[in-house]
Design brief:
Layout: E1 4-9, H1 14-25, E2 28-34, H2 61-70, E3 75-79, H3 85-99, E4 104-107, H4 125-153, E5 156-161, E6 168-170, H5 181-200, E7 206-212, E8 216-217, H6 219-224, E9 234-235, H7 237-248, H8 250-253, E10 260-262, H9 263-269, E11 286-288, H10 290-304
């Protein structure tokens, strides 16, 4: 029997690393894509134009590979950069040549660098373009590279890591507990991919699903983000457990095609991570876009021929 395969971007640390481990544990061979091949590599990861930070972050493709292989699965590391489209093509080609197919694509990696926590007047426009290229265009490139083979095989899952910033507005400005415009607008654009692709691929056996991770405690949050008002969060294993469920329950996952799964609540309600107490109560960090939420409900109602909701005043 052919083993299931997954391609995980941003697999050197954080959510991507946890997802790779849980998918391996669930019976997947996992291709690992990221920029950091080995521990200790230095590159710019400051979130602001006001200073530089090239101190190494924990994690690498090599260390994640070891963890995946410890689960009894094959791991295939492929160095790739979201801002280098050619590297994405090489990564996909390498995996397809080695394994022949990819059952699940996790678009988890995102732009890391200056402008993430800067206000618009402080942010050079090229940095906003970098956000859009990394967070929107790169995932679309991967989708276009993999969708034809998924459609031909009659199955496949594309999972996009969305964000609270895609559909809510921070009550604080970037640098003071909020996020920069480049990050929010690029995540909002990425958020729309799942629903539209789900309609375009309807009846092909392909599923395109958003996962909203909520606040997750990652290595980079611990090392970089405290000064910007971000700390703590749920363990990254929460997201890994949800990914493994999606990958091993494709029939049940079909109900979420084109939709967004709130990962922490889903994980807790389904008991996917024994020993985890569940999501903490949300804070007053953001102001939700009520019209946006209602429009999402309206789209679902139109598609399902249900009663249409009333837009609140």
């Amino acid at each position: 029997m052919t083993r299931r395969t997954a391609l995980v971007t941003g697999a050197s640390r954080g959510i991507g690393k946890a997802a790779a481990i849980h998918l391996a544990r669930a019976g997947f061979d996992v291709a690992l894509a990221a920029r950091t091949a080995t521990e200790g590599e230095a590159r710019e990861h400051s979130s602001t134009v006001r200073r530089s930070d090239t101190t190494p972050l924990p994690g690498s493709l090599a260390s994640t590979q070891a963890l995946v292989e410890a689960e009894g699965a094959q791991a295939l590391p492929v160095v790739a950069d979201l801002l280098d489209p050619a590297s994405l093509g090489v990564a996909v080609t390498t995996v397809l040549q080695q394994w022949g197919h990819i059952d699940l694509l996790l678009n988890n990696a995102r732009y890391v660098g200056p402008g993430h926590m800067d206000r618009l007047l402080d942010t050079p426009i090229p940095l906003i373009q970098d956000h859009l290229n990394a967070n929107v265009i790169a995932p679309l490139i991967l989708c276009k590279l993999l969708l034809p083979s998924m459609i031909e095989r009659g199955s496949g899952q594309i999972v996009n890591m969305t964000s609270l910033s895609a559909y809510s507005t921070s009550r604080k400005a970037a640098g003071d507990g909020g996020w920069g415009l480049g990050y929010g607008m690029s995540k909002a654009a990425m958020h729309r991919i799942a629903g539209i692709l789900a309609v375009e691929t309807e009846g092909t056996g392909v599923q395109v699903i958003n996962i909203d991770p909520g606040s997750i405690a990652t290595e980079r949050i611990a090392q970089d983000m405290g000064s910007f008002g971000f700390s703590g969060g749920a363990p990254a294993d929460v997201i890994g457990a949800v990914l493994a469920w999606l990958g091993t329950h494709p029939e049940e996952a079909a109900q979420f095609n084109g939709e967004t799964i709130p990962a922490q609540h889903f994980c807790h309600e389904h008991g996917l991570l024994p020993g985890w107490d569940g999501p903490q109560a949300t804070t007053d960090r953001v102001r939700y876009d009520r019209i946006g939420a209602v429009m999402d409900d309206l789209g679902r109602a139109l598609r399902d021929d249900a009663n249409l909701p009333t837009i609140p005043r």
